[in-house]
Amino acid sequence: MLGRVRTAVAQLVGGLGPAPGAQHPRDSPAPPPAAPGPSACRGPPVGGGFSRPAFLQLTSEELQRADDHAGRAVQSPRESRRRLPWSTGYAEVINAGKSQHNEDQACCEVVVVDRRCSPRCNPVPKECTGEQGRKDLYFHYWGLFDGHAGSGAAVMASKLLHLHICDQLRDLVDILQDSSPPPLCLPGIALELPAERNRAPLAQADVELPSDALPRFHLEKAVSHESLVIGAIENAFKRMDEQIEREQMTRLVAGGCCALAVVYLLGKVYVANAGDSRAIIIRNGEIIPMSREFTPETERQRLQFLGFLRPELLGNEFTHLEFPRRIQHKELGKKMLYRDQNMHGWAYKRIEEDDLKFPLIYGEGKKARVMATIGVTRGLGDHDLKVYNSNIHIKPFLSCVPEVRVYDLTQYEHCPDDVLVLGTDGLWDVTNDREVADVVTEVLMGYEPNDPCRYTMAAYELVVRSRGVLKERGWRLANDKLGSGDDISVFVIPLGGPGNYT
Amino acid sequence: MLGRVRTAVAQLVGGLGPAPGAQHPRDSPAPPPAAPGPSACRGPPVGGGFSRPAFLQLTSEELQRADDHAGRAVQSPRESRRRLPWSTGYAEVINAGKSQHNEDQACCEVVVVDRRCSPRCNPVPKECTGEQGRKDLYFHYWGLFDGHAGSGAAVMASKLLHLHICDQLRDLVDILQDSSPPPLCLPGIALELPAERNRAPLAQADVELPSDALPRFHLEKAVSHESLVIGAIENAFKRMDEQIEREQMTRLVAGGCCALAVVYLLGKVYVANAGDSRAIIIRNGEIIPMSREFTPETERQRLQFLGFLRPELLGNEFTHLEFPRRIQHKELGKKMLYRDQNMHGWAYKRIEEDDLKFPLIYGEGKKARVMATIGVTRGLGDHDLKVYNSNIHIKPFLSCVPEVRVYDLTQYEHCPDDVLVLGTDGLWDVTNDREVADVVTEVLMGYEPNDPCRYTMAAYELVVRSRGVLKERGWRLANDKLGSGDDISVFVIPLGGPGNYT
């Protein structure tokens, strides 16, 4: 069970004054702490209904308009209302009737991390009281959540993932702000020690080969501050996934979601991706990929390896081998191209009865599927997802652990046009990194460097261009190709300011 | 059981005439076909004794001198004897007493691939007779094998791996030379068809989510010629490993080996690496890595994943979790940094009884070990390798499958100084890519571009410089640091000629 977490929407970065009509606290710690326990995610809109990110502050009329799958109005934060932290730009649009409710969700917050005090530390030691000049720790946070099979998991993750990250960081508040290497071991609660096991032979382990293979028990691996933050984010995704699982048992939360989360902490940007959303940095016109997509094709070998080691997960309906097409029963005995879990290349094998099963991984590109069901292999939720008309669970093949990439903001002098762009697959399905970079650069050139709305205008333009214009033959791009019929959500985050990087 | 394979040491490439004293057939297919069956690897020196690559053609006196671990004479092909195919340069030296017998082995051959004829195709169809203008297929081959715990596996692989590659290519002779895409299915021997299974629900599979997830049964994946060659090399490594396993049962073959194999076929160079040897291309001074090393550190997650899924392989002595140092019994209940199989970062966990086990992966850099025993995670052999003083097998954690990288020789106009360098870890332990490139460039500049011995001189210089000079305090490099005390074997292969690339 997670401890309670105090979170705060802290003051806007860069000295922008409160916008008229703002309803969020700005200059003080936030209202009663939200705990990432089950209670925090109860009630609408989790599990159904239609909701949009709180930071859009839509009126009920506007919410209704945003839910119009025919009109597909592009939404972004209004200048007259609240401005997003870090001058972040944002825009989104609903899908063209692909699913009933918009399945993208987003979050943009500044979160204050409280030190964790041991429940047994009584009286409270000074280091828990914020005395002795110890600095508070806070992080900036952006999240995009692309849901499938219902909006429940995406809504829940958008409201809670940053609190889980906060919770994972609570043990690290002082460690991360201390320049000395992190301690390998921390004091803990004393346990009743069981009798020491006899650990021979390894207690005096020696090996015959090679001669330099003697285990070195005195080894100590150095662990960096950065890898602690990565570990905290990875574990936060796991806890978030466990919480969704608990909620799904009560049927309040449906489906799963891809999650792309960005944390700015102590000078570094951590981009954590689990799914097929994408993040790129555009710096001086150059593109730096900050994520990769996790799909049945990119994770084929991990999935096949699991199916090979745990064939019972395949339910006697699937084979872990890959084939370039379905095999027909009459082809038994012929030779067919195949790929095993440890192969990158293809070879021929004689077709046996077992090869008639459906391949665990099947299809190409956007049509590739795990067990004929799902096209992404990492994300949150999906605990109840089964192969159609069967009792075979998909979840064991999905991973909730993100890949985290790190970008050190202090290593480069950024100009106002250098940005981090986050987008769900609705954006990237119809455009590529270069085109996105060109659009962003073009839009930003049209605004003064200190115009706070320029990043939202860039996000807006990206969404409009990838959605296209409604013509007789559907939504069309400028080149008359089909526009993206999916939800599209985009953050444009300036790297050059107005953040205070120190 | 593998079919018989006819192999040939074909004519030297580039029109170099037979060297005086050459004992190998040159201009005609080789002597009676060697079959990569068990019989082909019987007798000395497999399993013991001391042997050097046949292409060195050492006299018994020279062999004795090569076995001198104190003198460490550098060996390379003598100009007066046989020259290696493709003007290949080669040099090697024995270790400084690290192990009794030199554990590196090497091979350099040209292999002719015969079409496979079905044993049932009687009378022999025309396509099996080489008529109808069908071209023969041959490949150039270079292999380096760095043995451990005995020379048996390395010797056996050096004599047979290319025959296994040849065997895997036999089905592909015509397919690879046909410009149309490879057929997905080949005719085979008809089997007695069992009654068709009821494959519902997937026979009419549909899925609820996402809406575009319907399986497309009519999909056909395009497979390239290149990926067939990669698959053939991968499967050849597997068959080689199986053959070593069969031999090890009879105790004739000891130990295991890293394997780095290069195949030149139809204009492309395939570099297959399983272990910690390394291949780089030096082209116009630029370095192109052609392999990566497989070690407990680079393959940590694959190994931990296996230990996590199959804890019985850890024999109740090891934990799949990684810790930065050994945990002491008295630390139970404290918090320690750890890394799980799906993490890149580190986090703290409360130490439990199970965490006192030895970590599956432990140590850093060259000292990293799997189960405190072995420092490489891919290679051939090691079927009998166990954790010291226990019955825990290491082999399940090792992979015999290489990573194959491809370089298209036809895409670039190579000059005589562009080379592919292959080296065992004895070379790379004391030098880096840049230094190797500089030495090679420096040596090659000292010889005429058409001097056939220039590549052997480059290999020779690389070996001499990484071995160092024997001083009072051992073998020392030019900078007085310790030289490599390991076996060192190096191929230098010219990319610009004299090969005929078409």
From TrEMBL, chains A, B:
GO terms for molecular function: [pyruvate dehydrogenase (acetyl-transferring)]-phosphatase activity. Pfam families: PP2C. Residues 87-495 form the PPM-type phosphatase domain. InterPro entries: PP2C (IPR015655), PPM-type-like_dom_sf (IPR036457), PPM-type_phosphatase-like_dom (IPR001932). Residues 14-46 are annotated as: Disordered. GO terms for cellular component: mitochondrion. PANTHER family: PROTEIN PHOSPHATASE 1J, PROTEIN PHOSPHATASE 2C. This is PPM-type phosphatase domain-containing protein.
